Description:
Blueprint: H1 6-23, E1 25-26, H2 35-41, E2 46-49, H3 57-74, E3 78-84, H4 85-95, H5 104-107, H6 122-136, E4 146-151, H7 155-169, H8 171-181, H9 191-200, H10 207-219, H11 221-225, H12 229-255, H13 260-282, E5 291-294, H14 297-300, H15 307-310, H16 316-324, E6 328-342, E7 351-355, H17 363-370, E8 374-378, H18 384-388, E9 393-396, H19 407-411, E10 412-415, H20 417-420, E11 423-430
Helix pairs in contact: 1-17, 3-6, 7-8, 7-12, 8-10, 9-12, 10-12, 12-13
Amino acid sequence: MQPTTPASAAAEDQDLIAAVRAAAVPLTGGAGDHDRLLDLIGDARYVLLGEASHGTDEFYRQRAAITRRLIAERGFAAVAVEADWPDAGRVNRFVRGDAGDPTADAALGDFRRFPQWMWRNTVVLDFVRWLRAHNDALAADDHRVGFYGLDLYSLRASMDAVVGYLDRVDPEAADRARARYGCFDHFGGDAQTYGYATALGSAEPCEDDVVGQLRELQRRAAELAGRNGRAAAEAHFFAEQNARLAKNAESYYRAMFRGRPSSWNLRDRHMAETLDALTAHLDRGGSPPKIVVWAHNSHLGDARATEMGAGGELNLGQLVRERAGRDAVLVGFTNYQGTVTAATDWGGPAERKTVRPGLPGGVEALFHAVGQPAFLLPLRDGGEAAERLREPRLERAIGVVYRPETERVSHYFAARLGEQFDAVLHLDQTGAVEPLERFAPADDAEPPETYPSGE
């Protein structure tokens, strides 16, 4: 997939700029800003809201504003985010009013692993507070809106959660789980060391142990979940999902040393599998639940429209589209320049970095030339702009690491935007998200396969 070059595109771009300008819906900061997007969403069951970086304030604010409307006006039942299941589970208990943390800040306390600022920031804090207030105002028999994690980096925390659950409901089963998960003790609890050792063939994999534990929980679901009504069913669902995560994470860490497509695909398949499990869990026997997803553009834009897809990668957006069709709406976000919260190296401190202007020939520079500070560009139902954006162009992706000195190599890829998303929100000038802590802790977090971009 070769992107259009600046020299060959200069004249053609003027017509495309005019087409985008004609189709763009300005965002002015008013109450009706997202009316056109909600019209496009209609009765869709899945709305996937992206971001072009993990550290841009406006991306978080726009997603939160859209999500509030989807919950309040369209009855969405859950927010599923690119975060670890156990960490998000603590937030879920808080927003649903379960016993535990007294404040939203405390409920976000399990987000200690780099990059903390992705979820411990001022916008997420305000959104969690809003979600709790929304749920508190519901009638006693109304279903509370939940907050859930889709990612799989929490191998150790998830195994601990499974054992902790079984300690409460079946101590003998907890002993069996400890024995199975003890397979990982030979590696000092380090998942990356485990993956490396098994890839070299110097250690036996723990695959049978994690699969066996998940199967036992699944086999005993009706027995354990039926002991104490709804609360027991909820607790068992979270335990089973943690066991599923342990199984998939074990495969992921072994795949890390086989190359990016293999590990990337395992990760996004896990996200899709988690979303399917969440959908089934929230189905009350009537109309299927509606779920909002927050994640990076690289996970939510259909991979088949990108150079990564041409290289063998799939992603969550592609998988949801394949399963749900027009019941899924994929929304991308772009910006031209500004500042971003990001690290220089994996595991490094959060820094406020300057985002360079978008490269000539890229979608960011094209949208900048439209001359509107913020706009929505609908793409789903055709039109000249959507059709012409089916040609490949450069698109920027900043993860949790930003290296402007190697930006073209580190942060750009080719994509057919008109096929990648159903709509795009462009915010020309953006600012860095404000972390609740300024520096990330130096813990034992493992770099994922997306290092150094960290999407």
